[in-house]
Write a structure and sequence with these properties.
Layout lengths: L14 H13 L3 H40 L1 E3 L5 E5 L6 E9 L3 E5 L18 E7 L4 E6 L6 H10 L4 E8 L2 E11 L5 E6 L2 H7 L8 E2 L5 E2 L11 E4 L4 E5 L2 E5 L3 E2 L6 E5 L9 E7 L1 H25 L29 H14 L18 E3 L6 E3 L1 H10 L1 H8 L8 H13 L9 H61 L1
Antiparallel strand pairs: 1-17, 2-16, 3-13, 3-17, 4-8, 4-12, 5-6, 5-9, 7-8, 10-11, 13-14, 15-16, 18-19
Helix pairs in contact: 1-10, 2-5, 2-8, 2-9, 2-10, 6-9
InterPro entries: Flagellin_hook_IN_motif, FliD, FliD_C, FliD_N
Keywords: Bacterial flagellum, Cell projection, Cilium, Coiled coil, Flagellum, Secreted
Subcellular location: Secreted; Bacterial flagellum
């Protein structure tokens, strides 16, 4: 196939340039479709930005529906550390820590070689079973050559159970150490060996382990429990004991969540001299202010986005003749005149300008908190001094304005419903209006792309026809030129 640049050689005409111009003219047939596609894509992009702004606003709204008014300041204490959730209430409690929960730990006597087999050569396997008081069991089977300290630790850890094993080197030799992962008496371990009496004599432990005199070559203290056990107690299993407001509690863990509602107590040490410490939970009013500041910020950001997307700029008609039509201004928003966007903005502005909470209350509208609105743009302005005064005066009443109260929706729940209606809720598997709109736009983009592809094929075919016609013209003109030259040559000889 001849290239575009080879055209015109036979005819002497600039058919290559002519074909290029004709191709450019044909390509203009795509313009309506590419403009349509660009318009759809711009709308999808605009809705995406609005959805992101709605999601950010929803974050603040959810906090105003509870968390902002339930955030508590927790006192610092020495014997324990407390954390509070939104379910906790402002209050004070006396807490005394008598005992900390301790995990059970056992060890063997010391041996010179951690790789030496300690069991009998039986020609079969032996079984080690470690049972915790809560009923959990860990069982390992060992061959004759797997009874060294290192091999036993490896076999136990391979089970990935509630007991961990390690081999530690001490002044008295290598020791196998078993540590319960479960704290308190629920994690107390007993050890039994079947199929190897020699190994059983070293490991069998049923009463918590022997207690020894470390200064006397680990001599067993016969007056203590476990005097007949094979393994030595490093730490006895022990439950935590504490008093809260004069009531005694026993727990297997130092992390306690079921005594004070919404409060986690992390016990760190025994109370000095048995004296109680006061745990104080007080309302953090600064959380109300910071959340309202963020709410104003996110609301204004959303309106900025919706205003940009719906912006209308008059067409520039200067220089046009009477028979010319002005084209839409390129600065117009992608969603200019969109009914869905108008409905969203209208519902939001109506919600934030409404009255909530108790009838005749001092704080029942955003304006009473120092939040004013621009009549044209709807943007909020926050008077922080007025807000501080309102929070100091009656934070509970402000909470009633935002949260559901006495069967009536608060501002936060009303806004949340509006945002969910348009942006959806992934947790509740709700698709909003915006998703339906963008899905429809996506379908339109696909249809336009198909039309562009079809039209491009038609253009390519038409340009190819032009090329073939010009090529034929070249061939014909070349023949005519040759014939003309021959005639001139013949006539010149007559």
């Amino acid at each position: 196939m001849a290239t575009l640049s080879s055209l015109g050689i036979g005819s002497g005409l600039d058919t290559a340039s002519m074909l290029t111009q004709m191709k450019a003219a044909e390509q203009t047939r795509l313009t309506p479709y590419t403009n349509l596609k660009s318009g759809y894509e711009n709308k999808i992009s605009a809705w995406g930005k609005i959805s992101s702004a709605l999601a950010a606003l929803q974050g603040s709204v959810k906090k105003l529906n509870g968390e902002a008014f339930n955030t508590l300041l927790v006192s610092e204490n020495k014997a324990f550390q407390a954390t509070a959730t939104a379910d906790a209430s402002a209050d004070a409690h006396d807490v005394t820590v008598m005992k900390l929960a301790v995990s059970h730990k056992l060890r063997t006597s010391g041996y010179e070689d951690a790789n030496k087999s300690l069991g009998e050569t039986t020609g079969s396997t032996r079984t080690i079973t470690i049972t915790q008081k809560n009923g959990k069991e860990l069982t390992v089977e060992l061959k004759d050559d797997e009874t060294s300290l290192n091999q036993m630790a490896k076999a136990i850890n391979k089970q990935d159970g509630d007991v961990r094993a390690s081999v530690q080197r001490t002044d008295s030799g290598y020791q196998l150490v078993l540590s319960s992962r479960t704290s308190g008496t629920e994690g107390e371990m007993s050890v039994s060996v079947e199929g190897d009496d020699a190994l059983g004599a070293l490991l069998n432990t049923q009463e918590g382990g022997r207690h020894v005199d470390a200064d006397n070559n680990d001599a067993t203290i016969t007056t203590e429990p476990g005097a007949k056990d094979g393994m030595i107690s490093v730490t006895n299993a022990q439950d935590a004991e504490l008093k809260v407001d004069g009531i005694k509690y026993t727990r297997s863990s130092n992390n306690i969540t079921d005594i004070i509602e919404g409060v986690t107590l992390n016990l760190k040490s025994v109370s000095e001299n048995g004296a109680s410490e006061q745990l104080t939970l007080s309302v953090d009013n600064s959380a109300i202010k910071s959340t309202l500041q963020d709410f104003v910020k996110q609301y204004n950001a959303l309106l900025t986005q919706t205003t940009s997307s719906s912006k209308y700029v008059p067409n520039d008609t200067s220089g046009l003749t009477d028979d010319q039509v002005a084209k839409p201004n390129q600065e117009n928003g992608a969603l200019m005149g969109d009914g869905t966007l108008r409905s969203l903005v209208g519902e939001l502005r109506a919600a934030v300008n409404d009255v909530y909470g108790e009838r005749n209350a001092d704080y029942s509208a955003l304006t009473s908190l120092g939040i004013t609105f621009d009549a044209t743009t709807g943007q909020m302005t926050l008077d922080e001094k007025k807000l501080d005064e309102a929070i100091a005066d009656d934070p509970d009443q402000i909470g009633m304005m935002f949260k559901e109260h006495a069967g009536k929706q608060g501002l936060a729940s009303v806004l949340s419903d509006i945002i969910t209606k348009y942006a959806g809720d992934s947790d509740k598997k709700i698709d909003g209006v915006i998703k339906g709109t963008t899905d429809s736009l996506d379908d339109q983009v696909k249809l336009v792309k198909e039309q562009i592809d079809k039209t491009q094929k038609l253009i390519d075919a038409q340009v190819e026809r032009y090329r073939v016609q010009f090529q034929n013209l070249d061939a014909t003109m070349s023949k005519l030129n040759n014939l003309s030259n021959q005639l001139i040559s013949i006539l010149s000889t007559v």
